[in-house]
Design a protein that fits this description.
CATH topology of the largest domain: Hypothetical protein af1432
Number of domains: 2
Order of helices and strands: HHHHHHHHHHHHHHHHH
Helix content: over 70%
Distance between the termini: 33 Å
Largest sheet: none
CATH class of the largest domain: Mainly Alpha
CATH superfamily of the largest domain: Hypothetical protein af1432
Strand content: under 5%
Structural class: mainly alpha
Oligomer: single chain
Shape: globular
Number of strands: 0
CATH architecture of the largest domain: Orthogonal Bundle
Length: 288
């Protein structure tokens, strides 16, 4: 994959935000905090530009603490490994938010961002319903599951516009259109390549790489992401004014032990929930 012409074009574009390798190392430590010395993790987190001041700002502004948070170590000890992991991923997600990075002219990155938020919401609700994974973690994963699309929007906007046109005007599935335009490569492949470049944990890699092919992974997070993405894709198609609907796998529905009634309720409530989350996120992310 690293030698593919599309990956080479993305690399040569010099448009992808540079994330220190220490970020991936820190996330791996935070996934298994008992196996690492906390000071080593903090040292790696400190290499992420602007993370420390942003984290301290958020805590001191929003938390009623008995004392002021002054350092990254204070913040990590106060929040705990799980919360720091979520905030670190959210911080990196903010770097890639479409409001500042999108360059495609036809593809509407702000509308697509609603799909990503919709995926996060549905995944979080499915996680809560099934108890198969942490709902806060899967919400964050939902924001970055289509990071490959964001990379195309940043680095190869003309290609993304062509893919989008093939979807909307010719009715092609996203993956089919991507393989035609990108010579066999999909946004999942591009996302996996970027995750590997950044040294992100295997759990995130699999969510990004297999959310359209959940049977390739044994992780519950991947199967939940597949179903959440399916529900949110229907919502996204309605935003585009198309009549297409995403047909999800009955096998995955059975694996998650979910009823069609539950999925239907998620679909009906999703537009309102997305607008709520957008208002909250646009306020909260100003801190970063």
């Amino acid at each position: 994959m690293k030698n593919h012409s599309v990956i080479d074009m993305i690399s040569r574009s010099k448009c992808i935000p540079q994330i220190p390798k220490a970020f991936g190392e820190a996330l791996n430590m935070l996934l298994e905090p008992c196996e690492y010395i906390i000071d080593e993790c903090i040292e790696r987190l400190s290499d992420i530009p602007n993370l420390e001041p942003a984290l301290i700002k958020v805590l001191n502004y929003k938390s009623k603490l008995s004392r002021e948070i002054l350092t990254l170590k204070d913040a990590v000890l106060y929040l705990g490994a799980v919360n720091v992991r979520l905030i670190a991923i959210a911080f990196i997600t903010n770097i890639l938010l479409p409001k500042s990075c999108g360059r495609a002219k036809i593809f509407n990155h702000r509308t697509y961002w609603k799909h990503c938020i919709g995926t996060s919401i549905t995944c979080s609700m499915i996680a809560e319903e099934t108890g198969l994974c942490d709902k806060e973690k899967i919400f964050i994963y939902g924001l970055i599951h289509d990071i490959g699309v964001t990379v195309l929007d940043i680095c190869l906007p003309d290609c993304l516009d062509t893919i989008f046109t093939m979807q909307t005007e010719r009715g092609l599935h996203q993956i089919v259109a991507e393989k035609i335009v990108l010579n066999g490569v999909t946004h999942e492949d591009i996302g996996l390549w970027l995750c590997e470049e950044w040294g992100l944990p295997d759990e995130i890699k699999e969510v990004v790489a297999y959310h359209h092919a959940p049977l390739k992974s044994s992780r519950n997070e991947v199967k939940i992401m597949y179903m959440g993405d399916a529900v949110s894709t229907d919502y996204y198609e309605k935003l585009l004014g198309t009549e297409r609907s995403f047909v999800y796998s009955d096998k995955i529905l059975e694996y998650l032990n979910l009823s069609r009634e539950f999925i239907g309720e998620l679909s009906r409530n999703l537009p309102e929930e997305v607008e709520k989350v957008i208002r909250i996120m646009e306020y909260d992310l100003d801190a970063f």
